[in-house]
Design brief:
The chain has 359 residues and is an alpha/beta fold. It folds into three domains: 109 residues, Tetratricopeptide repeat domain (Serine Threonine Protein Phosphatase 5, Tetratricopeptide repeat, Alpha Horseshoe), CATH 1.25.40; 101 residues, 2-Layer Sandwich (Zincin-like); 106 residues, no CATH class. It contains 16 helices and five strands. The chain has a five-stranded mixed beta sheet with strand order 1-2-3-5-4. It is globular and about 75 Å long.
């Protein structure tokens, strides 16, 4: 089974601006004109820096990351104490450029300017980037259309190219299904010792997604390769499309639903048969707790298999974009039940909640 060891980093960007896009363009133009007339005015510089930061958010939401990055660099050059701009710069440098040194510089600039709850997030980011910088020393990069595949020099370029071809095929399928896609993703291949350190030597952890897709070299070319890569890519797409506020069972169920058919162990088959009959079913309202606070390994296995069963059923039962709209409703604040009743009017909530359905 896959394990979500590290919570995925996501872009945290708060703005106090209430300007719409047209007003923002006008404000930027006026401030740029004012700065030309009074190039030493700190007040104008700070206001222009804030407006550039707001526009960077718009660019980023449009998937125009390069423009967002350029805006943010200009913003911090105008106002070096623009904490949100430094924070956002670090996130782009780390998650989309794998530029650890620049990311660390930006986050360290942002730290003293941020409120305490954001400082905790910055501290986590710094720790993760420092570990990545150490583990990925000597890695080389193979770029494909949508991926930067980072791998140790002992790994062959031909294998990296083959993985890139596979990932591009899976990328196209997910982009068509969700009608959105990340502009670019990083996939890192690790030697066993590095992967063990990254995962805390949890042998059941075959792959990870925490803003970057991670896999051990030992599984490349093996029977689990396609399963791991498809699973973690599905996590990346789901986070890109809907953020981090989905129930864990939806995240893990969807990632498993996008895997090639995997062969279950005898123990997994037994648990799956029990779930099919309704035995040992965990009500959905309690299922996330079994992921975050399992009492034993069977709890984890049961949670994964049940999540897969529910999400596959929802994907097959809905019409058109029912599942996508179901998930969107949840991210907008509706309960799972409310979202389900709105998008699956022909199905019974009680049957889903308590496992009384057949795939």
């Amino acid at each position: 089974m896959m394990a979500f060891i590290l919570p995925p980093l996501h872009f945290v960007f708060a703005s106090d601006s209430t300007l719409n896009k047209a007003d923002l363009e006008s404000t930027l133009s006026n401030l740029q004109t004012a700065l030309k007339k009074d190039p030493k005015s700190e007040r104008i510089k700070q206001n222009l820096s804030a407006a550039l930061t707001d526009q960077a958010r718009v660019f980023f939401e449009r998937k125009q990351t390069d423009q967002a990055f350029s805006n943010l660099k200009e913003a911090v050059s105008l106002a070096p104490k623009n904490g949100p701009a430094w924070f956002f710069l670090g996130d782009i440098a780390y998650l989309q450029q794998s530029d650890f040194r620049y990311a660390l510089k930006c986050w360290k600039k942002a730290f003293p300017l941020a409120p305490s709850e954001i400082q905790r997030q910055i501290t986590e980011r710094i720790s993760r980037a420092e570990l990545d910088n150490h583990l990925e020393q000597g890695h080389v990069v193979f770029p494909s259309k949508h991926f930067d595949i980072r791998y140790p020099v002992s790994f062959s370029k031909e294998e990296a190219r083959r993985i890139g071809d596979f990932m591009e095929g899976e990328y196209s399928k997910l982009a068509a299904e969700l009608n959105t896609s990340p502009a670019r993703l990083t996939l890192i291949v690790y030697q066993k010792q590095s992967f063990d350190r990254l995962t805390g030597q949890h042998d059941e952890t075959l792959g990870m997604y925490d803003g970057r897709i991670r896999i051990g070299a030992k599984d490349i070319g093996g029977p689990f390769e396609a399963i791991i890569l498809s699973h973690e890519l599905a996590h990346a797409f789901l986070q890109h499309a809907f953020g981090n506020n989905l129930p864990i069972w939806i995240q893990e169920g969807y990632a498993q639903a996008k895997e090639p058919q995997r062969v279950l162990t005898e123990d997994q088959k037994r648990i799956d048969r029990e779930l099919s009959s309704g035995a040992g079913w965990i009500p959905l309202k309690w299922l996330d707790r079994k992921f975050s606070q399992p009492t034993n390994l069977e709890d984890v296995t049961r949670s994964y298999l049940q999540s897969r069963r529910v999400v596959r059923y929802l994907l097959r039962s809905g019409k058109g974009a029912a599942f996508q709209q179901f998930v969107e409703r949840i991210t907008k604040g509706e309960t799972t039940k409310e979202a389900f009743l709105a998008e699956y009017p022909g199905l019974s909530w009680n049957s889903i909640e308590h496992g009384r359905f057949k795939e």
